[in-house]
Amino acid sequence: MVDEEGKSSTSILHDGSYFATGSWYSSIVVKGDTALMMQPNGTALDMKLKFGEFGEADPDVAETTGQKFYDIKLSFCFGKEFTELGVVSEDRLRITTKNDIGLSVLDWMSEEEVATLEAKGDPIEAPPGPYKIQPDVLGKFLWITGGAGVGKSTSAQLLSKMHGYVYYEGDCFASCRNPYIPPDVQNPSLAQFLQKPLIGEGLEERREVCKRGNEMFGEMMAGGDYDKVKAEEYYEKMCEDIKRERKRIGGDWSIAGVTFGQELRNFISPFLDCVKLLLRMRKMLSML
Q1: What is the DSSP letter of 196?
Q2: CA distances from 17 to 20, 51, 120, 206 (A)
Q3: CB of 97 within 8 A of CB of 176?
Q4: Rounded distance, CA 70 to CA 49, Å?
Q5: What separation, in Å, do the N-terminal and C-terminal C-alpha atoms of the chain show?
Q6: How many CA atoms lie within 13 A of 222 on its CB side?
Q7: Checking CA distances to 224, which of 24, 65, 140, 164 falls within 20 to 30 Å?
């Protein structure tokens, strides 16, 4: 079967789960020419698959796969349309793509292998990280906020690398991954997608909150305003986690996390005593 673009819609993949390495999602579950894109927080997005020839492959993809042309197109919608191009291996067990993080591979796995992988991760009650446990020392407590690309994660990472702060990445809360980004990674914003998923008691409750939070983020990416009820539920849950983790670990803390307007920042403040909201990079840098 051929669609209106001249691309084959006949699947060249096996049905089942392809687990992702080096991607912001954890897996795709394929059925014919459609799939569900699964995230660590339990959110599933519909994905469309097209097969054919989609131009020359990125040099890194071509070198890794030995194939010169992309033969699969993966598309999904999260507020707006996103597309990835990839190469399918001859045995149909691997998809190789290139994204902002670098090379990404999706490997087909049996149901038993899937169950084994899903049981692995970092404990939600005490995620490991590059920090010193000193609960008796509660030091400086900073929340670095601002728009996309202004340097929230980079600034928090620098505080960790240069001054020993505990760096908590707020975006990892949304994806149910370990929030403690290493201080020596090249790009902390992208490194969050390589953090291990969280497992353990309390994960399902967090997932439900994060699913509703993701709905809010998707609505905003589509041009809408943030949903106040969903936002307050999401940020209250995040604040609870930060407060509990700071009590467990101690030390100086820097949190990188977006907030939406003064009203929401005012909502967050009472949950975290002594948090200083750094709203502008110029102001923040002058205080370091």
Answers
A1: P
A2: 10, 18, 16, 24
A3: no
A4: 13
A5: 61
A6: 13
A7: 24
Handedness of CA 260, 265, 266, 268 (dihedral sign): positive
Do 95 and 88 meet the contact criterion of CB atoms below 8 Å apart?
yes
- Those residues whose C-beta lies under 8 Å from the C-beta of residue 207, and which sit 6 or more positions away, are 41, 42, 176
pLDDT (tens place) for every residue of the chain, 288 residues total: 344 444 545 678 999 999 998 888 889 999 998 999 998 888 889 999 999 999 999 999 999 999 999 999 999 988 788 899 999 999 999 999 998 778 999 999 998 998 888 788 999 999 999 999 999 999 999 998 877 777 889 999 999 999 999 999 999 999 999 999 999 998 888 888 889 999 999 999 999 999 898 888 878 877 788 788 999 999 999 999 999 999 999 999 999 988 887 888 888 888 887 555 554 545 444 444
Is the CB of residue 129 less than 8 Å from the CB of residue 178? yes
Q: How many CA atoms lie within 13 A of 177 on its CB side?
A: 23
CA count, 13 A, side-chain hemisphere, 288: 18
Q: Which phi and psi (to 5°) does residue 66 adopt?
A: 80, 10
Identify the helix (H) or strand (E) that includes residue 27: strand 27-31
